[in-house]
Write a structure and sequence with these properties.
heterodimer, A: 253 residues, mainly alpha, 10 helices, 0% strand, B: six-stranded mixed sheet, 7 helices, 10 strands
Chain lengths: 253, 218
């Protein structure tokens, strides 16, 4: 997976003129996006530079403890982000942390045990980042769907409660629908892999000089792990979150 | 013996007072018609009875024990509530009629289902009908069958004949009357004056969230 592709800083500076094109369009079309664009570009440069140095440092350490710490940091950030998406979900942060954490842990565990990847920072961190962010997006979608379903299907849930059903059978359809909503983008993108676009990771590997066949192998691996993490995280997030829509008397809040 | 008792019960939602200081004793085997203008708190009253909501103030007791001491799931099986809007779920009528069995971990009793169809004078072929293809009146009767699958101690009905023609209204009234004679306590919200005094032994009138009157009819 390692190759010596380099990009000279001067070429990068020349390439930055591409930003000017975007700024020009924004100004010309009165889109009022100049400020946003500049802030975006500066943030991208600063954040990525910091991450670059940080990763360089951690990769050099080759210390499993730091690698784990970084994974936890990524999971925390992702959980925070997902819980923001699910405003109205009780204990959103904690639920997200458990869902993403367990989803990522199981997937990485299988990958490492099977020998597909090594528990070394240069492999674990980019792969961990990919699955954690994928899980974050998935459970964000789950939350949105749970919130809208519990609002729109209130009467159905209350009808079932009134018949003497516990909260799980009263909400099972809503839970299933939300899990599906979380997983569908991953399944859909799987179907179009290679036809609509070359996935980012594969593109990166090819750019860095890996043969397309090798890159494809890694991409297939990535696809599998995205699928497993998304399903674990969506499942856990929905099953943990639905309870928050009821109180101790099993009444819909 | 009183089966349900409200003591100083008030209910408010988001700062809006819906029921104010209700005091009522409902005797076992009572058949009470509940009337009152829209927004007088009739449906809220029924929801409080089967613990879909809890009072903001005061106590409700069922068989002389505070409702909050019961497991809400078990309580709702004894105090069954059929909604004003018949909400059928799943794909088919069967999905709805098998639900009461599933939540009790019991095998679906087809004899019971067929018996209810005959009681309601409905064709058994409806069992496999898609919910989407049912008329308002059919939905209302299926929803009621679903509620009656296991005979409850207390039956709460919220305008359950509003979508029925006179013939089917009569059938439902007779079924409910029969259940009452067999021992179920009935609380029936209705807008139909004739219906409200036909079988009931008491007439409860709510107005602006308060009990206006409780007349003994029989």
């Amino acid at each position: 997976m390692n190759s010596g592709a380099t990009l000279s800083t001067s070429s990068l500076i020349i390439a930055s003129s591409l930003v000017l094109i975007s700024l020009f369009f924004s100004y010309y079309q009165k889109l009022n996006l100049e400020k946003e664009t500049i802030i975006g570009v500066i943030r991208a440069i600063v954040q990525l530079t910091i991450v670059g140095y940080l990763l360089n440092f951690i990769f050099g350490l080759k210390n499993p403890f730091f690698t784990t710490l970084l994974l936890l940091f990524m999971t925390t950030n992702a959980s925070f982000n997902a819980s923001k998406r699910g405003k109205g979900i009780k204990n959103g942060f904690l639920i997200s942390f458990i869902a993403i954490g367990i989803g990522a842990f199981i997937t990485l565990f299988i990958l490492v045990v099977s020998g597909a990847i090594k528990y070394e920072p240069y492999q674990i961190i980019p792969i961990g980042g990919m699955i954690i962010s994928n899980a974050m997006v998935a459970i964000g979608l789950c939350y949105k769907q749970l919130l809208s379903n519990f609002k729109n299907k209130r009467e159905e849930v209350e009808t079932k409660l009134a018949l003497g059903a516990d909260i799980l059978p009263s909400s099972i359809e809503i839970i299933r629908d939300a899990i599906k909503t979380g997983m569908l983008p991953t399944i859909d993108s799987m179907k179009t892999l290679g036809i609509v676009a070359l996935p980012g990771m594969m593109t990166g590997l090819i750019l860095a000089g890996t043969s397309p066949i090798e890159a494809v192998k890694f991409q297939i691996l990535v696809t599998f792990m995205m699928l497993s993490t998304t399903s674990i995280a969506s499942f856990l997030a929905c099953y943990l979150a639905y309870k928050g829509f009821f109180n101790g008397r099993k009444q819909l809040i | 013996m009183s089966i349900l008792e409200f003591s100083n019960v008030s209910f408010s939602n988001e700062g809006k007072s819906i029921l104010k200081n209700l005091n009522i004793r409902i005797e076992s085997r009572d058949y009470i018609s509940i009337v009152g203008p829209s927004g007088s708190g009739k449906s809220t009253f029924l929801k409080l009875c089967n613990n879909l909501i809890s009072p903001s103030e005061g106590n409700i007791s069922f068989n002389n024990k505070n409702v909050s001491e019961y497991n809400p799931i078990e309580l709702r099986k004894e105090i069954a509530y059929c909604f004003q809007m018949p909400h059928l779920f799943g794909d088919t009528v069967m999905d709805n009629l098998s639900f009461p069995f599933k939540i009790r971990n019991k095998k679906v009793d087809m004899d019971r289902i067929k018996y209810l169809f005959s009681l309601f004078s409905m064709d058994e072929e409806f069992i496999d009908e898609k919910v989407l293809n049912l008329s308002g009146g059919e939905k209302q009767r299926i929803a009621l069958m679903r509620t009656l699958m296991f005979t409850p101690e207390v039956l709460l009905l919220d305008e359950v004949t509003s979508a029925l023609d006179s013939e089917n209204t009569l059938i439902v009234e007779n079924i409910i009357n029969k259940l009452n004679n067999e021992g179920s306590t009935v609380l029936w919200v209705t807008h139909n004056d004739e219906q409200s005094i036909k079988y009931a032994n008491k007439l409860l009138t709510l107005e602006n969230g308060e009990i206006k009157s409780l007349e003994v009819l029989k």
